[in-house]
Amino acid sequence: MVRKLMKAVSGPPILRPLAYLPVETRRETRFHTYGLAGVVQHRHCLCAYEHDRPLIETIDKAAVEMCDTSDEYVRVYRGQVMHPIVGLTIKGSTEEVSIDEEVSFEVSVGGGEEVEYSLDFGDGTDPTEWSADLTSKHKYFVPGLYMVAVLARQPQHLNRRVMSEVTYVRVTAELVNENIHFKCPKVVEPGDPALCNLTVNAGQQMEMTVDFGDGSPALPIPLPDVPVRALGVNVPQYKNSKVTYGTALKAEELLIIPLDEKSLDSSAAIQALEGYGAAPGNMQVFILRKVCPEGAECSGHGITCFEPSALCVLNKGCSDSCHPFPPQKTSYSIVKTFTLTITEGHFYLKSSSSFRMTAGDVLAIRSDGAQLAYRPVKSGETPDYITEHSGDGPISSDNFREVKEVKHFIRAIVSEPLALTVPHEYVDSGHYGIKLSVKNRWTPKDITRESSINIQSTISKMRLTVNPPDASVDQRVDITIQLNKGSNIKVLWDFGDGTVVTDQIPDIKSSQRFMKSYKYSQPGVYDIRVKAENLQGETSTHHQLIAEHPVHKNWKIVSNSPQLLPGYVDINFTYPIDKILPTNASTIIDFGDGKREVWPVPDTEWEGLHVVQHEYEKPGKYNREVWPVPDTEWEGLHVVQHEYEKPGKYNVKVNMSNIVSKQIRRFQVDVLRRITGLKTVAKYLNPDRGYVGGIGQNADYFPIDRQINFTFATKTGDIEYYVIEMNGQPLKNSTDNVTSFITHEPGFYNFTFYGYNAIQKSNASTIIDFGDGKREVWPVPDTEWEGLHVVQHEYEKPGKYNVKVNMSNIVSKQIRRFQVDVLRRITGLKTVAKYLNPDRGYVGGIGQNADYFPIDRQINFTFATKTGDIEYYVIEMNGQPLKNSTDNVTSFMTHEPGFYNFTFYGYNAIQKKSKSYSLPIYLLEPIEGLEVYDVSNDTVEPEIKRFVVEFNKMGTNSCLIVDYGQNKAEIEAFGDSRSCRLTFPDVKYTLMGNLTNPLEISKQYEKPKDYRLKFSVANQISSAARDYEKPKDYRLKFSVANQISSAARDVSVTVIEIDCKPPLLSIRNRVTNWRKGIEFWKSKPIQLFSKTIVDCNATTVVTRVWDAYRLEEENGTVAERVDLSELDSYRKSFLYVPPFFLPDGYYKFQYSINMTSPEPHPLLPFYASAYTFVKVVRSPIAAQLAEGAQSRVIRGWGQRIRFAPGEYSRDPDDENNKNFEIKWFCRRVPDEYINANLPDERQNFSEPLYDRTGIDEEWDDSDGGGCFGGGPGISRAPDLVFSG
């Protein structure tokens, strides 16, 4: 029997041999594993499983007493099996699992009955309850390596050892684009470390590479893991015996969830909220933060206990005798709000905001139908609290009520962001693009960030030199600056007359100089300002320059010297009336007799003569007179009179000067006393009595042959000699006052005596009758006259006057008559400009100088003169004639912004054009329709806040100022630097670049807070403002106002934490000014391309559509809507409009997107649109000279070619149109070419050569182009047919 059984062992075993153990031992353990056992002669044991029983029962049975007598018999025992647990194993469905991804664990055993299992997943959650289930599922929400342990027991034998086995699972986190933030400083000095900041909110086993853009190698750098932890109680994923459902909160109640202050050493970013719902619905989760007594947020990690003695220093907490929460008299404010929709059971909701929590923050919950499950409070745990609160005010811990023995299932999954500084040193100045790439092995594509940095040297102090410091008009002025250091510098040269020139300097060498030459065309005081700036800062300096018309040598100075005393010496100043007078000049006349006079030389409207009179009293060297030259309305003649007290020769010095020039003239004035009271006494020589008087009643009889002495006497005068005439004939001259005469002939003698000097010579005079009842007498000089005498007469009224000039002396008379035509001279012409304001009527210009005006408004120019008869006014614009006006008011209007220089003249037939009056004005487009769109949901770090700024009209030279609402007042400006400086002189800002329409801007905030953003835009004629305040529900008031228009709008903005953002639209080559729309030929298709960026995790339905509108050509308003529905592409992102679909004109194309959700959504629907303007124009004529459209023809001798452009050319818009205007040009190539931007008469053609007979080809004479024998130029032939 034994042999049979042993033999059976080699096959399918029935009874298996046990070890050779004592039978007693074997009996005690026979039922440990096997259900059947056999003993052979008390020495050998054999065992079999229960399922082997049917085979054993087929063996023949023997009597009991036979069992121990031989090895042929086996005693078989059957009992109850007592299987221990053996072969316990656990295996996960995967070794790596992502966050929030379910993993299954399978448990198996090799042996054992009635086994129960409990799994500890290693993440801090409670182990599963004991059960016989061999499969368990679990999700992990914090990355890391977890040890999962299975415990196995047999409840019927609790005294036996509990078996355990472990396995491991790694929880991975794929890198998320929103969790990587990279920012570099705007500007750094060369050689200084450029410190770029990298913040990673979540990630493990990461590696980064940085390309700094300067050619340095980009090497991979491993990054440490970002710590992630859970704040709050562990949340079960399935309902168990500890999960309890309670009652819902009241509407005014807040559930306060304390968090362990020691869990955080620094701020942490919220990644998700996890909890267990008892009832579905909505709830609001608030983050509460302590508020210090001053109202600011409390910082640090302090612990507050009710009793000071209860503070335990070692564990940074409170002793058991006091409660660590809530702190006594602590106030909290709401710093963050999450709106959640939960279901019954476990929930895990990711956060897209990455809000930063700090130590001491508290969770608070307000229910809107939702209800949280809870469990009992464990020993040593802080319970939850309830308080009443409504509104947004502070929350005081004095009102907290403890929820007895309850701990709600909710916790925050947070990460402690990894903040690294990535240093790099740049040697050379420049603008460098920096590219960062971060990856780990679970992210399929690298996450990249791009930034830029400017390496610029700080600008040294600037030195400015202006040569000459003051200048004449049209004189070259050299403006030189010297800089010792700096790079990437923008230099603004403001010459003070409205001209600003910008230079870009890449790098400054030591003591490098830069010069600009400039000429000033008008006199004035100019403030020359030079500013050098880069991102490191700026430096500026200025110089005040005076520009004046100089004193030229065109002056003529004539005096009426010699002159007699008493009397005046006239010094006449004349100047050509067609020459420009000096500016602010004065003339100092030193008369040489100790006196002087100052004459201010006039700037304009002078007749060209100034007379200075001076009377000298006695001979000698005399002083000077200063003549301040008048500035305006000079008649062209100035007379300076001076009375000398004594006779003599006087040296006169005339010094005429202004700041920029000087002219000196010297001449001599001869002054003598006038001869008056000349008398002569005649006496003859009586031999007895000496010289006696004549005989007779009149003492006029004298004897012949006797010497007669004539004795002269004068009342006044300087006499060179006496002139004696007898009977009208010269007798002799005498330098003595006594002269003698004797004759032998009796008779009547008429003696005439004169006193003579070089000045006083004749007795002729001129009487001028001016025809207006007034006259003037001019004594005509006898000799040494310069040949010119000017008589000035001022008529009081205009008209035609008959002038009579009577020149006579005793012996003669001459009379002349002529007519004088008198008109009042036009002086003091001024013009005032006003524009039509719809609300206020005609008002003056805007700005400090009132020289800014809006376009599309009528501007009236009103003329006024001080004096003058005007036939009409002449108006010129930018140096070109505009129009004439007989009225003193004329109007002007334009649609084009720009600088316009208007020049006005008064005109009459005598004066012709008066002195001009210049009025430079700036016509600007006003700002209209400022809109600010928020295209992101969060303003807190590390989210980047993005805005889109749009205008209906951006305006000319506009500047946008953006105040992001931070305490450090980081204000940015967009626009022209000069415009920003003029419109916002009191604002300290950073100029970021040009202002575009639309303008996309972004800002990254460093600290969670409510921010109020202000957008201000202005130019010289208008301004607008927008405010934006965040978070929660806000009502924003947008106001736009300027002197010519105003607008206001209220906008409600709802900001909530749901990961769906409005779409961003753009159209390629977008044009926002309807007058500057992109031109498309009528015969060509219109193709418009759009781009849409959508960031939305919700289920949406997106509708796209193109709309078109025809605009009025006068004002750009919508005339009618164009139906595009027949086009296949009108509901696609690319619009194709076929040729000839639209007639000529202006069009507005608008692309719109409507995002809706099939399910209720707090944000949707979203609507966004973008527009552009298009101008459809007639297609150009397709010109064709010859059949086949040859561009080059080589003719042989005698071959013919026919040019017929009227026949072969075509109009693409109308094939039947042959009404062409044809001009023929012939030129020599390649030297001569046609410039389509120039008129015919200015084309680059040599002179036509009509006479070719003088050409000698042997001497290589030029034929001048030789086109058809007539040289190059324009031909009028409609068609040409010729043969060679």
| Major sheet: arrangement of strands | 30-23-20-26-18-29-31
Mean pLDDT level: 78
Largest sheet: 7 strands, antiparallel
- Radius of gyration equals 57 Å
| Sheet/helix structural class | mainly beta
Overall, the morphology is elongated
| Helical fraction | under 10%
Strand content: over 45%
Number of strands: 97
Q: What ranges have pLDDT less than 50 throughout 5 or more consecutive residues? A: 1-33, 299-327, 619-624, 937-942, 1028-1057, 1247-1252, 1276-1284
For the termini, the CA-CA separation is: 136 Å
**Count of helical stretches:** 5
Pfam families: PKD
Domain PKD: 86-152, 486-541, 769-812
Membrane topology: Multi-pass membrane protein
Main location: membrane
Structure write-up:
Residues 1264-1273 have a biased composition (Gly residues). It is a multi-pass membrane protein. Keywords: Membrane, Repeat, Transmembrane, Transmembrane helix. It comes from Oppiella nova. The chain has 1284 residues and is mostly beta strands. It contains five helices and 97 strands. It has a seven-stranded antiparallel sheet with strand order 30-23-20-26-18-29-31, with no helix packed on it. It has a seven-stranded mixed sheet with strand order 80-79-78-82-83-84-85. Strand 83 and strand 84 (1032-1042) form a beta hairpin. It is elongated and about 235 Å long.
Which descriptors apply to this entry?
disordered C terminus; elongated; PKD_dom_sf; 1284 residues; monoatomic cation channel activity; 5 helices; seven-stranded mixed β-sheet; 97 strands; mainly beta; seven-stranded antiparallel β-sheet
